[in-house]
Structures are given as C-alpha cells and as structure tokens.
Amino acid sequence: MKTGLIFMLTMTISAAFPQLYPYNSSSGGNYTFPSEMWHEGKLILESGDTLRGNIKYDLQNDILQYEWSGKLETFSARKVLFFEIFDKTVKRYRPFYSLPYATPGGYKATVFFELLSEGKITLLCRESLETRSMTNSYYGYGYGSSTRIVLVNKFFLLNERGIIEPFSGRKSDLVDLMGRQSEEVEKFIKSNKLKVDQKYDLAQVVNYYNSLFK
C-alpha cells in the first residue's frame, strides 16, 4: 500500500448509501450488523506489535476491541495502524487503516477507513448505523410506518496525486473521473449489471479501472 499517498487524506468527500436490513423496532425484530459481531483477524499497533485474535470494530466511535484467551483490550484509532478481519457476513477479508480525517468544520482526528480498492483511484469507506422511518403497504389495506435500522456506507475517493474528487453517487460522475477509460468502464458496468451505489459493486468498478493501468 502507498502509505505516503493514503496519509495525504486530509479532507473528505463522500456519498452515503443506506442498505436495509431486516430490523423492525415495532415488531421486536433484530439483526446483527457486522460491527456488532466478533471477527477473526489481526491488528498492527502504533508500537509495531502485531496481535491476532477476535476483533470487534466500531467506526462510529473509532474504537477497536480485541479479545484473546479471555483477555479484552480496547484501542482507539490513534493506537492502531491497521487491522483486518474475516467478515463471515460477506465471506471476505476486510482491511482497515487509521487515517487523518478533517471534518467540514476543520476538526482533525484519526479515524478508521476500510480500503476497498487501491491504485490510480483509491476507494475508501466508512459505515454507520442510522434509524430511518419507512412507509409500508399492507397488501391493499392501506399504509403504515415503521422504524428500521439501516447500514449506511460513506465512500471516499483519493487519486494517486493525493487529490480528493467529489463523489455524488451518480454513475455519470464516477465515469467522468475515469477520463479516457470512461467508455470502457461504462461497458464493464453495463455488461456486469453493476450498481455503483452498492458497496462491493462500486469496489468492483474501481478495481477494474485500476487494473487498466497495470
């Protein structure tokens, strides 16, 4: 990973996309989100030590819990350089890096970003849980509302020059970032029926674009 490049991330651009999960507070339903689960993985501390065991992450508060042989430790993003988990909910490894983050108000902090793709365009992601009100149709008997928790992914784009490009979430804007390769990328999106507002579809598109430069 181009460590120097990634650490040039000093401002953010994002598009937030909610993903619905079968949680309904009105019916007492429940769903365990990835951030609420323990995952097998490893982490590298700021001190250079590598720890392996069970990991639970909290991107909303930027803390990491580590458990091994009955011992539990908690680390802030400032104490962790990198961690990786195997997420059984999506059956894949997920790498995260601690990176400097500047809010629109100018406050700077070290936070966790998930790395989805690295290359000419580097794609990063953060997630949060948000409560949304939903309107439901009851098979012709009218409408009702319910509360549902959704997993919201916020994406960040960083190019190889360390320049952050605004990402509105529209496919046309994403393709525009890809210059001469835009036509080829559009064909790839269409032929694979990908949706750029979906996390791993977006990662697949950016990975394909980056592969054109190898």
Basic shape: globular
Q: Helix tally?
A: 4
Mean pLDDT: 81
Pairing-aware structural class of the strands and helices?
Answer: alpha+beta
Q: What is the chain-wise order of helices and strands?
A: HEEEEEEEEEEHHH
Task: Tell me how many strands there are.
Answer: 10
Helix content: 10-25%
Radius of gyration, whole Å: 19 Å
Specify the oligomeric state. Answer: single chain
Low-pLDDT regions: 1-14, 20-29
Beta-strand percentage range: 35-45%
**Numbering strands along the chain, what is their spatial order in the largest sheet?**
1-10-9-8-7-6-2-3-4-5
Structure description:
The chain has 214 residues and is an alpha+beta fold. It has helices spanning 3-6, 171-176, 182-191, 199-211; strands at residues 16-20, 39-45, 50-58, 63-68, 71-76, 80-87, 92-102, 108-117, 121-137, 143-159. The protein is built from four helices and ten strands. Strand 3 (50-58) and strand 4 (63-68) form a beta hairpin. It starts with a helix and ends with a helix.
